[in-house]
Amino acid sequence: MRILLTGGAGFIGSRVAGKLVEDGHEVRVVDALVHGAPPVFPEEVEFVHGDLRDPDTVDRVLGGVELVSHHAAMVGRGKEILDGPRYVGCNDLGTANLLAAMTRRDIGQLVLASSVVIYGDSRYDCPEHARVRPSRRTRADMDAGRYEPRCPECGAELVASAVREDDPLDPPRNVYAVTKLAQEYLVGAWANETGAAAVALRYHNVYGPGIPYDSPYSGVAATFRSAVRAGRAPRVFEDGGPTRDFVHVSDVVSANLAALRWTGAGMRAFNVASGEPRTIGQLATALTEAAGTPAPVVTGEYRPGDVRHIVASADRLRAELSWRPEIGFHAGMREFATTEMRYAS
Ligand SMILES: NC(=O)c1ccc[n+]([C@@H]2O[C@H](COP(=O)([O-])OP(=O)(O)OC[C@H]3O[C@@H](n4cnc5c(N)ncnc54)[C@H](O)[C@@H]3O)[C@@H](O)[C@H]2O)c1
Asked: What CATH architecture is 2-122+162-344?
């Protein structure tokens, strides 16, 4: 199949490119290289240095393409609203340009690199009031060390569980999440309107070889890995109890291959998660133990807008596309503790 891979020079995209070629696909990568020099691609990959915000570039790179794997995006929390114009431009204008050009060229298959950030929090149940949406955590709560979300009715601590694809999407809490949610809405509208087939892969926290060095744009895995690399103790926020699911980049790549098998019409969303949620404290400890570097320090710091728990179930991806993650938490962390890293964002 002739595939256009946007963002194919990035952490995840570059791995997807290699695997697509290995599986016999013809791959053209388009990337604006926001992190600098591109990686070394297999020689079969055609690389175009271009920006999705430019409609002429988008139209040009779609020539002869049958399917688009859309990974290009500005990622992470960054400088929040100060980064708004760039995030909205790259993530949403870029996606709109892509969908318009695909429609003009009658290209009807797309895989979107989406994110679990669009859910906001995990699912929560109150012992008294069943399923509830928690109140947002206030600065006063966090300053007092009250980190767990509480029931908006009775104030009781809530019990978190995994979100599923049909759960409501929370009003997003940061600029990145807003733009990722808008991407899915744009793709959904396009697929419904044109009868195209779109898969939204909602990645959890991705880690593995080639992860970027720590920067204001990094997630917690890159931040802790950078600390370990520098021989520093990772600084663990809150009480170390926020829960995430850390999924290895090679399992994300295999989810992308599985997504090519989806043949429905409209948009279908799939969570991509290891199924082994861990706290950020456990992540820091696993990494420092594997690397033999100083133990983590729990600091009680916090970032307003961070969610306490976000964990997603990948049962749909397993059931409908026969995907199985292959790298468990401890094996993945042993590798990650010493793996190479890439560009500073
Ligand atoms: N890394 C994660 O944990 C994670 C989690 C959930 C979702 N995702 C999604 O996966 C995708 C890839 O993420 P990543 O971690 O590999 O990030 P990355 O920053 O390494 O890669 C993104 C690539 O997109 C390119 N890009 C950005 N704006 C562009 C534009 N306007 N035109 C062309 N190229 C542009 C960048 O140059 C970069 O190479 C993103 O869509 C991201 O939102 C990542």
From this structure: 3-Layer(aba) Sandwich (3.40)
Host H or E run for residue 99: helix 94-104
What pTM does this model have? Answer: 0.97
CB 8 within 8 A of CB 50: no
Domain boundary assignment for the chain: 2-122+162-344
Residue 331 alpha carbon to ligand 1 centre in Å: 25
Q: Which atom of ligand 1 is nearest to the CA of 52?
A: 32
pLDDT, residue 135, reads 82
Confidence check: pLDDT of 333 > 80: yes
Q: Whose alpha carbon is nearest atom 10 of ligand 1?
A: 113
Q: What does residue 139 show for φ and ψ, rounded to 5 degrees?
A: -60, -40
Q: Quick check: 345 pLDDT over 70?
A: no
Q: pLDDT by residue (tens digit) across 106-128?
A: 999 999 999 999 998 899 999 99
Mutate to test the pocket of ligand 1, among 6, 30, 31 (most ligand atoms within 8 A of CB): 31
CA 307: distance to chain centroid?
15
Determine the distance separating the centroid of ligand 1 and the alpha carbon of 43, expressed in angstroms: 22
Distances (CA, A) of 305 to 77, 84, 87, 136, 308: 10, 16, 18, 8, 9
